[in-house]
Amino acid sequence: MEHDELIDHLRREGEVLGEVPLSDVDVPTCPGWTLPDLVAHVARVHRWQEAQLRAPSADALQQVERADPPPIDQLDDWYHTGLASLVATLESTDPDHLTATWFGPRPARFWARRAAHETAIHRWDAQAAVDSPSDLDPDQAIDALDELLEVIAPRRFSNDDWSGPEASIHLHATDVAGEWLIRMGPAGISVTHVHEKGDVAARGSASNLMLMMAGRVPPARLELFGDGAMIDRWHRMVRV
Predict the structure, then answer these.
(1) Are 114 and 49 in contact (CB under 8 A)?
(2) In this structure, is the dihedral angle defined by the CA atoms of residues 220, 225, 228 and 231, taken in order, positive or negative?
(3) Which has the closest alpha carbon to 3: 77, 119, 87?
(4) What's the rounded Cα separation, in Å, for the pair 89 and 52?
(5) Strand 200-204 to strand 188-192: parallel, antiparallel, or no bridges (unpaired)?
(6) What is the DSSP string of the chain?
(7) Are the CB atoms for 184 and 199 separated by under 8 Å?
């Protein structure tokens, strides 16, 4: 997705998240968190991401003092202030400007992508805690799944207890163009965009594919062919 598109998704998803009525309810997809905990988390993340965009050097992540969230009656304003500031900073930053990331210097568009997709997933979490959540935009879901598989998962993949041969998962989006073959094993994860048989295949909307791989919806939400235990293995190996 283009830089401006990602900022638009961040703004839109962030505003929808901010419209979820704050109440002290548990968030089932984020065990241990209440809805105010989730909103406070996203607000902190937005401020941390903005700090990376504003860092004087792209060679090291900017350290940010952890801020305590305000009382629940002020949390909404605190959240929206951080969202608006991050959006403004992204809009005023050259997409090619090098910034600090976990992987070394990367263009500012890295943070536009990270912010947009993380906010969208947590918007879904918040809605799911109080009502029926709306799907992710199909084009955003495709890009979010690419980011999950190519950027996030390799960093979080744990193969300490891997045994047996390499395993594979084939994903096929049915509403927009998108296919992935994920191979996982002792050497880590590799991803290719091919139509090729895996140990298990999952077909469904781009939103449901992304939400399933991120541990938000069960595999039963999709059409599955083959060994469904590979999906469970994915979630044991990758913590999202």
Answers:
(1) yes
(2) negative
(3) 87
(4) 11
(5) unpaired
(6) --HHHHHHHHHHHHHHHHHSPP-S-B-TTSTT-BHHHHHHHHHHHHHHHHHHHH-S-SSSPPP-PPPPP--HHHHHHHHHHHHHHHHHHHHHS-TT-EE--TTS-EETHHHHHHHHHHHHHHHHHHHHHHSPPPPPPHHHHHHHHHHIIIIIHHHHB--TT--SS-EEEEEEESSSS-EEEEEEETTEEEEE------SEEEEE-HHHHHHHHTTSS-GGGSEEEE-THHHHHHHHHB--
(7) no
Rounded distance between C-alpha atoms, residue 165 and residue 35, angstroms: 41
Residue 132 has pLDDT above 80, yes or no: yes
Backbone angles phi, psi at 116, to 5 degrees: -60, -45
User: Per residue in 90-105, is it b (16+ CB within 10 Å) or e — as a string?
Assistant: beebeeeebbbbeeee
| Spatial contact of 207 and 220, defined as CB atoms under 8 Å apart | no
pTM value? 0.95
Give the CA angle between residues 86, 88, 90 to the nearest 5°: 70
Region class of 239: left (phi > 0), else alpha (psi between -120 and 50), else beta: beta
| Joined tokens for residue 77 | 């304003």
Q: What is the pLDDT of residues 151-210, one digit of tens each?
A: 999 888 887 767 788 999 999 999 999 999 999 988 889 999 999 999 999 999 999 999
Beta bridge partners of 98: 107
Q: Which residue has the tokens 């992508």?
A: 113
What are residue 57's phi and psi, to 5 degrees? -135, 145
| Tokens found for residue 73 | 């009656």
